[in-house]
Amino acid sequence: MMETEPSGSRVRDRVNQDDTETLLYSSGTTGASKGVVVSSHRNLIAMVQTVINRFSLEVGERFICTVPMFHIYGLVAFATGLLASGSMVVVLSKFEMHDMLSTIEKYRATYLPLVPPILVAMVNAADQIRKKYDLSSLHSALSGGAPLSKEVIEGFLEKYLNVKILQVYGLTESTGIGASTDSLEESRRYGYFSNPEATTSTLDSERWLRTGDVCYIDEDGFIFIIDRLKELIKYKGYQVRPAELEALLLTHPEIVDAAVIPFPDKEVGQFPMAYVVRKPGNDISETQVMEFVGTQVAPYKRIRKVAFVASIPKNPSGKILRKDLIKLATSKL
After folding, report:
1. 139 against 120, higher pLDDT
2. Which of the ends of the chain has fewer CB neighbours closer than 10 A, N or C?
3. According to its UniProt record, which cofactors does this protein need (predicted)?
4. In a 10 Å sphere around its CB, with 0-12 CB exposed, 13-18 middle and 19+ buried, how is residue 251 labelled?
């Protein structure tokens, strides 16, 4: 656009694609939230292009913004990627189920990006929702920010026959771009803000990013992400995945929500403890919860302690705040 370079007196600071574009913070579900100084202009440009290429959006697609834009999910999707595609984005001032559903009906939304807790709530209240709201314009739901179990997906597809589910995966440290257990990006030059120890433990000497996910690759080359390494429960040398037990608990008709944490024990190291939200009007007992799970899993995976709560603490992106539940569970030890 300019034939000659601007004079030095007119340019105070030069910005290039490898400069830091944003300072985002990790979710802090298992420990303190960390400032992530990795979102360069190059990263964000690449992410916008990824969103555009991945969805191949038709003219007239309409999205409902249900997640905060100060998290990577909201930033790369709503604040940048979808706007760059020319799609309509309807932003909710705050999340409430009624507001979201009535907005879908009013604006004839076609895409509903959300987090698993909202999707679970839609499954549990499907009969009432379908009677009260017209969601016929909706053809796709996008889930991200936390794991979504097979059981919940099947339940949603059974209740909302014309809506397909897409799962998105990424993390703040990679500017939202999906990665495997180790990932490398061309422009990876930064780390955690004022936290060299955390940077060293996450980025190796060749700048590969350790995401902390437990996954496997099947014979067809597909990667399956099954849990977080930091969240595994160590029972007598066995590793128990909380996400597996949570998915199983959510299949019980009297359970609205659940979270599983490691509970310390002198003999076995740790065992699974469940926090459970009962469906209103039901009085399922601790014994019934443990028996429900115990008949479907190996002995070392059995839940050995249950507490009932009004709600499961979660951050704005829908991730369970396990550190809060662990603190609550161990406060009386």
Report:
1. 139
2. N
3. Mg(2+)
4. middle
